[in-house]
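Backbones bend. Shown next:

***
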Amino acid sequence: MTDGAAPLHQRSRTAHHLVLKPRNRWGRRDLVEVWRFRSLLGQFARRDITLRYRQTALGVVWVLLQPLIAAGIFAVVFGRVAGLSSNGVPYLVFSYAGLLGWTMFSTYLTKASGSLVGNAALLSKVYFPRIVLPLSVIAGTLLDFVVSLALMAVLLAATSTSPGYGLALLPLWVLLTLALSTGIGLLMASLAVRFRDVNYVLPVLVQFLLYASPVAYALDAVPQSLRPYFIANPLTGILEAFRWSLLNTGSLQGPYVLYSAGFALVTLVLGWAAFGRMERSFADII
């Protein structure tokens, strides 16, 4: 060879490597990396929706029946037996409006908390941002909400109940609900990898929280001596805002909503950070 070049078999070949570095001590996630895996996020989201609607006998009807039956029970127990006020609207519609926000919160929290354990085999074999799994549940949760919201529109029309201008703020309450449930869901999903009891204890705690939140009753029905404890619940401001937007009853309690918004954002940041800190041990423990 006259050009001084090394033989082909002796030439070095350029190899491409993916270097995985540990997160910093605060566990901040690289959103750019999550964006790079957006197609995988979409695949997980489609799988979640498919399993949700295809592997049930009633399909989308079940999404409508669950909150509707619960609203009917609340209307009998709290409306007829307890005689609580529904601010001039039928108690069925009143309680269903509260259940819209609550169902979105509880559905996402329950599904996200088990998303890592439910995909244990995948976590131990393939690399991808683990946070993709709990985030993929958001799409199915929003779809359930839209389906339930359609029934809410039917109930409003059937009872001649007209929402006011506050309906324009409904997307904001949805975002706050998702922020709160995502923050808690990320933390619970991380803890469930190490402590499997989380998936057994969490549904019980969620059930307790249902009755400690103004879902089937208004905050005004709570005695003054107990009201500060209910206001400390970050769901209170959000659920009351849901009902205000959909039913045009009462007034928007700005301080309660601001507290709920601040609590939701702080919870989201802390949950995200905790997930990042514990993520490196998922594959070893699970």
